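Here is an idea for our session: we take a single protein and study its fold together. Once you have written the record down, we can walk along the chain together.
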Amino acid sequence: MRTEAAFSFPTPVRFGADVLDEIESDLRRFQIKRPLVVCDKFLTETDAFRLLEDALKNTPTTIFRDVHPNPLEADVSGAAQAYQAADCDGIIGLGGGSALDVAKVCRLKIQCSDFQLQDQTMLERGQWDQLPQFIAIPTTAGTGSEVGRSSVITLESTNAKAVIFHANLLADLVILDPRITVSLPAKLTAATGLDALTHCIESFTSPVTQPLCDGIALEGIHLIAKHLIQSVKNGSDLEARGGMQLAALMGGIAFQKDLGATHSMAHPLSSLCGLHHGLANALCLTEVMRWNSGKQPGLYRRIGLSAGLNVIDLADPSADSAAINWVDQLIAESGIKLGLSHYGVKQEHIAPLAQLAVKDSCHLTNPISMEEEDFRGLYQTLL
């Protein structure tokens, strides 16, 4: 794998160890003199944050560090207020999907203080061509949020997740420096890596026609099969870390096509029960795959091929089983224990989880249509 590269699709991306050190040149190119850094409190104590601090040693910066693990409306408003109070002129998002989602969406509030996250009509009718410039620096390899044009924010009044989608939310630059992910703990490396895998699998099996995303998703699966376990077991391996960064980016591009029922189940597990999004996806993924493959045999054959499995000559059900078993094994090797009850989910959560899942739009592009009772049954099986 090349150690350094630059490319666009359509977001400009700079990839490689040490590329973060060039960020002040990037800021000058964008004419940003007083950036707001959006992150969370935990991140400010990490090596990743110190790497950014060192790279910005000649640049006056303001830090907004109040992003929640599952970001809230208040996070978006708080970041916008911090930007305006410090007279900032650009945004750097540093973190996982939560920080990057807040960094993206707070720009809407900066341009229009009356913007309401749940107001899709206002989003569609607005002229969002004056948004502050935005540099995305992911510290995890999972969400793909750095190349996405959407953000997911929890509405505190309903506990539902609002998906804010607009082409102008795309970052102006993505910086992928494998050094930034070296200090990521093994459990979080696993959860975010399996989030990327879920993006690739669900986007590929979505019935929406987008052959370019399909090819990207399959290559992402190949990279995850090659690099995830090494990243979990040896976090200082820059090749593995870089491979997972690229896989996450590919998953983020691929799911612009759409997702599936795993995400519809994961979103309420985060908003209602507080589970990390990547972990929630990992806990639900293979049960959804079994449910789908039982109704559409052969759905996961090419997933198996991308993972390096010899499934070419197998019958459709056997090819699906091999692919699903591979995912189960990958989850186990990464150190994640299956079973929702291990993470605080209780019997009384099943009904409200299913009610929220069926309202989540991701399952509308699942390969098999699903009803509330289907979600209830899957949650019950996973408990």
User: Anything to note?
Assistant: The beta strands are 4-8, 12-16, 35-38, 62-64, 90-95, 134-138, 150-154, 161-165, 173-176. The domain at 4-181 is CATH 3.40.50.1970 (Rossmann fold).
